[in-house]
What does this fold into?
Amino acid sequence: MTASPARLTTHTNAALWPVVGMALLVITNVLFDTLRAGGPGLFGAGAFLHVSVRDGVPAGATIDVLNYGATFVILAMGMAPVIAARGVDLSVGSIMAISGAVAATMSVNGHASAVSIAAALGVAALCGLWNAILVSVLGLQPFVATLVLMVAGRGVAQMITQSHIVTFHDAAIEYIGLGRPTWLPLPVPLLLAITLFAGTALVIRRTALGLLLEAVGGNPEASRLAGVRSRLIIAGTYVFSGVCAGLAGLIAAANIKAADPFHAGQNQELAAIFAVVVGGTSLAGGRMNLLGAALGGLLMQCLITTMYARNIGSDVAPLPQALVILGVCIAGSPRARQWLRARRMPA
Amino acid sequence: MPDAITHARPNPHQAEASAALLAAEALIVDYPGVRALDRVDFALLAGEIHALMGENGAGKSTLVKVLSGLQRPGAGTVRLCGRVIRPASPREAQAQGISTVYQEVDVLPLMSVADNICLGRQAKRAGFIRHSEVRRRAVAALARLDITLDVTRSLGEYPIAIQQMVSIARALDIDARVLILDEPTSSLDAGEARDLFRVMRKLRDQGIGIVFVSHFLEHVYEIADRISVLRNGAKVGVWTKADLPKASLIEAMTGRVIHHAPARPATAARTDSGTTFAIEATGIGRRRSLSATNLRVRAGESVGLAGLLGSGRTELARLLFGADTPDEGGVRVNGKELVRGSVRDAIRRGVAFTPEDRKAMGLILELSVRENIVLALQARRGSLRPIAPAEQRRLATHYIEALGIKTPGAETPVGSLSGGNQQKVLLARWLATSPAVLILDEPTRGIDVGARAEIEALIESLRGQGLAIVLISSELDELVRACGRVVVLRDRRVVTELEGDLVNESTILSIIAAPASEGATP
It folds into this structure.
């Protein structure tokens, strides 16, 4: 049961914009595919909507969006509670690099897969705890506190791999990024993202954590005077964000069967923040929209995949990406909607 | 609804709309689910002080918002000197000569007094601000109010009353023809209010039209020339002050005859030895906010804390609740020592606290009425034992009904309710935790007469149910009605404790006003 009908509607409304953004991108791709002379048509080979079966599993641009978008979704699940509690976590990209580096190095040094994976997630949790201590105990501004690890974390990752890209061969770790369960022909990252989303939503909405979190984000002092353990809750959001980043780092490493301490997770913190904000959670804290954040993560990947599909080089791709992001943000902004409403119903 | 007004008839100022300095005609404003203003007319003459009265939710704030450019009306017109204006922002309204000073003092506490007064209109030369000219202008603007300040100091270092005066000086510096003052006296003491009134009269005599929104009837009768009354979003009428006795005004505002609050409750018999007190503070103090203080309150007893702003009454309340950590002394609740400075421990032992500034420190404005009501109870239970949604709805519905909270529904964001209803939501939050001790800091501040009587009655009935109540109020009549015992504070220490017949307004006032050397315990 949802907490309330009112909350359901506001959430659905805000989650609409990532969906609209994705729909527009898909339509653009379809138009390119079908209108171009000698093009692949709607479902032909090479078309955006084309889905083939390779090695017994579906493949294609839309599958790519779900597969690679899973990383963004996972990061967004960690970022959403942080932002709802009036914080921000800039260190998730670096934590991804650290997590991949730990898993790869341990695996190469002959540790069991489970140990390597657990160590990677554990270190990621410690990174989150570090942020939590800076913010919650020492009272640093979240922006500055997590900037420390954003900058230093990449150095830590390079220390772990001794400034090399560490390639590994570990079936279990690779499965996290490349696997397809036999009973369900879907990429494992997507299944992980769905599980994480469902789990987070369940914990947030079925325990009272959601209410307390949104109360802290809405008014920290009033929450403290109502007996809410504000600092503990805020600390928890950073630890959770760290673990999510650790998981995303494992997927990123598994995808290339190597830990790249230089580039793994680069700029991903910004993508995660974008996913959360475009999904209807305000950077000012308060109301959190998990579904919107998840859809925002998929929108992010949809954009990137569209760039590939349209053969836009990665050097210029950020520009069209930024334009789409700008458009979605404007469409979703309260002021733009107010203006539209005023135009529709003149006073 | 039958109109209870019998001895005063609305004065039909038919011809005045054309002569008025500022005239609103047939204003309509709709908010989701509620019509905030329903064809409201309002006319302000040049050189008059026009009081705008009404209960919470009557539409005063909305009317002020329309006049000051914060809210576009759905229908109707506003004329300034006969010309139709449509200010789309407070800035546009100011440019046309309408300045507003809001209830929540909106100043920049970290900037200097001079910058606050001249912000956005600083004197410049070649694009650079001329600080000496800015300071000179600020001093001149304050001099108009007969105030001398060091204008280079941060405004935040001055008391609220001064900040208020600075807001007014800022409003006047824009060559305002219309000055709207929204609850300007709610944080002023008697002397400061007198100063404000002197300034207001001076401005009136210069031909400025002043809209005065206030809940303080005494202030309205002291200063206003005419009184407009709104009720439930509609205009009840406009009267000259002489035509509208106080009782009729209250009837016009509430639409019903006010019953006087119950007589002062008898004090419980004093048997100090061996009694367990509901709450007992021993030598509690904190550097720079309160010197060591004792306070004992029994179950079923109301104790008032009287004193001016900054006298230490709010500081004492916060120390009792653990909102601030005391440097010395301790608090016992029903004989159990509380953990120092732990709000959670205080709540666990049954202490509840509604702060003076309910928006900044009490409510989570964007969360719903339901969520605000269950918050403290849920926080006490911890996040792993959620209150079932059905139970949350039941609690919310129960308190909305029991306390008469006027809201479109339990899921309405609490920020959209009026002040009195917000206060009730805050009370409901604590009542849901079944407290033993209720500490109320200015529970009726900024709340209209009708809701005030309701809240007073509510506090009295809670006391009757055996709660220990600590009440802070600047309204001495309220303290005297509600409390069997009043502790008077001055200069961050308790000066005396009054009981029995000594609990009356004039005694309290004389102790508050006494110079520091006097004020011995009677």
The CA atoms of residues 46 and 148 of chain A lie 44 Å apart. The first strand of chain A starts at residue 52 and ends at 54.
